[in-house]
Every structure is written in C-alpha cells, then in structure tokens.
Amino acid sequence: METRFYIADDDLSIQRILESIIEKHHLGFVIGTATDGKSTVNEVASLQPDIVLVDLLMPHIDGIGVVSMLNKSKCNSSFIMISQVDSSDMIAAAYEKGIEFFINKPINVVEVVSVIKNVKEKHSLTKMLYSFESAVKIMRGNEPVPSKSEGQDYLKANIRKVLANLGISGEAGYQDLVEMLYLLISRSPHPSLYTSSPKMSEAYELLKNHYQHSGSLINTGTIEQRIRRTIKSALNNLAHRGLEDYHDDIFIRYSSLLFEFSEVRREMDYLKGKQKSSGKISVRKFVDGIQILLADESAS
After folding, report:
1. With contact defined as beta carbons under 8 Å apart, do 99 and 81 qualify?
2. For 161, what's the count of Cα atoms within 13 Å in the CB-facing half-sphere?
3. For the whole model, what pTM was predicted?
4. For the chain, how long is the longest CA-to-CA vector?
5. CA angle centred on 264, ends 262 and 268, rounded to 5°
6. Are 101 and 190 in a shared domain?
7. pLDDT digit of tens for each residue in the chain (300 aa)?
8. Are 154 and 286 in a shared domain?
9. CA-CA distances (angstroms) from residue 227 to 44, 168, 286?
10. What is the rounded CA–CA span in Å between residue 90 and residue 8?
11. What's 38's domain CATH number?
12. Which of the residues 107, 145, 263, 290 has the least number of beta carbons within 10 Å of its own beta carbon?
C-alpha cells in the first residue's frame, strides 16, 4: 500500500513543491492539504494519513499545537515539521510533542527525500512490528530464551556497529553513548521497537546512576560534555564522508536521521572554508535516530 501524505502549510507554493517532490520520487500520494492549523487537526483526525508534513508557523493553531492535539486524540500519523525557525527552544518543544524530523526552509529536494524515506521506514516498521508482535511470540514459544548476558552482548554489539559507521569508536564519550543507548532501549516495554527517548537530562541521570551502581562516580555534566563532543565528531566525520561522495549510502541515510540536514550542510561548508561556524548537533535527535536504526536492523 502506498504511503498517504497530508501537507499543512499556509504557503501554497510550498504545498505544491512538496507534493511535486512526493510524486516525482514515487514516495506516495497526497490525500489532503490545509493552510491553517484548525483545518489540519480536523482533517487529519478524519483522514488518518500515514505522514503529515506540517508547517511550524500557521494561522489559528501552530504546528506544535497541531501535533499535540492530534497525539492526544490517538492519531497514528507520523509528523514532519517544516520550519525556517532556528530557535533551539522551539525545536526542542516540537520534538517533545512528537515531531519525527524537521525539514528546513528553503526547501531542499535531497533533504526532503531523505527525511521522508526515513520517516516512511520508521512508520512502516512500527506498524508491522505491532501488528505481528503477538504472532511472533507464539511462533517462538518453543525456542530457548537467550540469557540476560547474551541479550546484553547482542544489543551492545549492534549499537557499537552503528556507531562504528560514524568513526567515533575512539572518542571519550563513545562508551557513554553505548551504555546510554543500551539503558534506554532495555527499559522500553517493546525493546524491538523504537520509542522516543525521555528528556536528555533524565537520560544523563539514568547513566550516572548506572555508573554509580558499578562503583564509578561521574557527574551528569561530565557525561553530557563527553557525549556532545563525541556526537560533534560524528557530525564532522559524516560531513567529510559527504564531501568525498555525496551519494554515499551511509551519508544519505545518517545525515538527516541523526542530524538536521541543514547543520550537516553547514559543517560541510565549514570544512570547505565557506562558513565561519560549524554545524550544530542535537543529542536528542542523535539518540532517537540511533534507536530507529537499531529497530530497523532488528526487523530486517
């Protein structure tokens, strides 16, 4: 079944551009559009599209309000925010309300296609795993259950494999990321499914407590600093990879899944000497993105 899209943006030209990209790249089809938040809430609740592309700044109800209201109504759509706003507080608020990814204005075709493909992948995966979860349990009823240590080793090996693709295995915060991701995934009621992470402050506290139980005393500030530096190195490595081959599979997949694509472009321009400042990172987006990658690999 083709993916069904709904586009909400008060700029009709943006609507047409996005619809054209979706059709031209065979990503699915658009089942509805709106230019204000109130109409979006009503129509999306009724149509139940797979993916909603929603502008951050719209009349009546803004994009964050739209997503918040639809999630409260148990809408099963996935959301992509369209924005030309770079306020970190507003972006953080959007992620808290359930936004999957951001597409930055002005519209970049490569970014739109990459983001939509990642969200499609996650949306399809989540539906599939929830649908067949009971059947899988029945089918595996007679199989031996792996020990706790075997499960830990398998999960951590998969985490390390994904991080290795980013070239950060030698960074100071590498082990912090491995342990944090393991703790976040393990505490999920459905470890094989992607579930949005808690606030990063809670994740740092979770990791600090984990270290304390192991006899290591490290404060959350140190943990956060090491993790941020490591993710920054990942961004730098990925930008180098994109400069070498813009069509590299890992670059295409990771650049919008783990980072804002605009920040990857900024980092590339910085490396080429075209920008005075380097790209920025979001720890929350990176951590959520890694979990999506892991959920995808566990299902394949």
Report:
1. yes
2. 11
3. 0.57
4. 60
5. 115
6. no
7. 688 999 999 999 999 999 999 999 999 999 999 999 999 999 998 888 999 999 988 888 988 899 989 988 878 888 998 887 666 677 777 777 767 688 888 888 988 998 898 888 777 665 555 444 444 443 445 444 444 445 456 778 888 888 888 999 888 899 999 999 988 887 765 544 445 557 888 889 989 988 888 777 788 999 999 999 999 999 999 999 999 988 888 888 898 889 988 899 999 999 999 999 999 999 999 998 888 888 766 555
8. yes
9. 38, 11, 10
10. 18
11. 3.40.50.2300
12. 145
Show the tokens assigned to 21: 């990209």
What does the block give as tokens for 242? 């994109």
Identity of residue 95: Y
SS (H, E, C) 112-130: HHHHHHHHHHHHHHHHHHH
Question: Reduced to 3 states, what is the DSSP secondary structure of residue 82?
Answer: strand
- In DSSP terms, 5 is beta-bridged to 30, 51
Structure tokens at 180: 């944090």
Q: In the structure encoding, which two tokens stand for residue 14, read together?
A: 């943006």
If DSSP codes are grouped into helix, strand and coil, which group holds residue 78? strand
Q: Are residues 72 and 211 in the same domain?
A: no
